[in-house]
Amino acid sequence: MALKSKRNKEIGKVVDRDKVYTANEAIEILKACPKVKFDQSVEFSLNLNIDAKKHQVRGTASLPHGTGKKQVVVVLTGGDKQEEAKKAGADFVGAEDLVEKIKGGWLDFTTLIVSPDMMRDVGKLGKVLGPRNLMPSPKAGTVTNDIGKAVEEIKKGKIEFKLDKAGMINTIIGKLPFETDKLVDNLKNLLGAISLNKPASAKGAFFKSLVISSTMGPGLKIDLQSLNLG
After folding, report:
1. In Å, how far from its chain's centre is CA 23?
2. CB–CB of 96/229 below 8 Å?
3. Sign of CA dihedral 57, 162, 197, 136
4. Is residue 56 domain-shared with residue 106, that is, in the same domain?
5. What's the pLDDT tens digit per position in 195-227?
6. How far apart are CA 103 and CA 106, in angstroms?
7. Which of 38, 75, 183, 200 could form a disulfide with 85 if both were Cys (CB 3.0 to 4.6 A apart)?
8. 142 and 77: one domain?
9. For the segment 5-55, what is each residue's pLDDT rounded down to a tens digit?
10. Do both 115 and 84 map to the same domain?
11. Cα dihedral sign, 190-193-197-200
């Protein structure tokens, strides 16, 4: 408790929690907070100005500088598509054999990509995959016949975003050791992708508020206008 209190005091010296920062300022402040023994993620919490009960916002974004997180990709497909998946960099490739392995509790992966013909088998894994946000979907590009492209995009930094019941989108935009400009690039690309998914019936400003933080750091309010999103 004493160590935590000391760390909070150190954070308090560099953070004004009532201030609204530019993205660059916020990231520099997060970098200036007391260090920890691992590379922290930079986390993104966007509040949308819509009713989450009436609207769903879900899609994908390609982060130009990646997430900094190792992506372990599993592909479920058959025939020539298996070789295509391997050449694209998939970590594990199979069909019914991997379905059975997952059914048995194996979940040592970050993304599951499947060809449409495998969805009948994958549907049986909903109770295992759903709670861990590992269920593939066409909207996320993880149910597709273009297996090679899907694998390559995930490996390069493609992520999925989804509005939760509280009207928030929470994800990461990279690792804190990334250069500030690269984190801002990732942030802008993510916001741009989300804006493309604005429901046609939603009126007024789409983005309500944005906070970014590090894994062990404070949440800092971001001035959305300073990002010049257009």
Report:
1. 18
2. no
3. negative
4. no
5. 999 998 888 889 999 999 999 999 999 999 988
6. 7
7. 75
8. yes
9. 777 888 877 787 789 999 999 999 999 999 899 999 999 999 999 999 988
10. yes
11. positive
